[in-house]
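Hi F.,

I've been meaning to write this up properly since the lab meeting, where we talked about keeping a consistent format for the predictions we share between groups. The idea is simple: the sequence comes first, exactly as it goes in, then the structure tokens exactly as they come out, then a line or two of notes. No screenshots and no reformatting. I'm using this chain as the first example so we have something concrete to point to.
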Amino acid sequence: MPAGEVERYLATLEVGDRHSGLTLAQDRGIVFVAAASPAGPAASSEIEPGDIVSRIDGRSTRETPLWELQNLLAGEPGTELPIELLRRGEPQELTLVLEPFVSPPPAIESVDGATVLSLPEIGPETARAVAEILEGLTEEGVDRLLLDLRGVANGDWEGAYELAGLFVSGHLGELRTRDGVLESFDAEGDPVWTGHLVVLVDRAS
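Output, unedited:
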């Protein structure tokens, strides 16, 4: 990335996917949809995870660095972005209109007799909301849980460690730079959830 673009890209990171609901990834030069928030504009435009993106706003994704594509997706609300993609070999042409949106909170539901806790994203307040849900499940005598993290491609890393501390104790991990450990994360005390746990993940997770 040119040094002159760093400040602009930092602003892009602040916006993240909150204007598009779309997370792109790149593998061997091919750009694809890693995640599309169910509440975001991308999902409203019928963009799906796994779609291969060939052009955004007239720019070839093979010839445009990923950070430039992310800049486009963090554009001003109301911006219209024509998108060309391939879905299971079939070409699609869609228009993504950038608009701010609010992700839904963590939700609990019963699916075929299983208790499923779905997280659309991990933010600074996610752990607190999940802790309240887990305490309620424990009071109800529920001891088996499916934690659904499919499609969770973005989020707050501090919030993610705080969330992990609800389920396990001890050393959780470290944030490292090239020069060494920047911050270490440990969960003190007993976990909030002590029942059986299965975590559902996908490529986005």
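Notes:
The helical segments are 6-15, 41-44, 66-73, 126-139, 157-164.
Residues 126-139 form the longest helix (14 residues).

If this format works for you, I'll send the rest the same way.

G.
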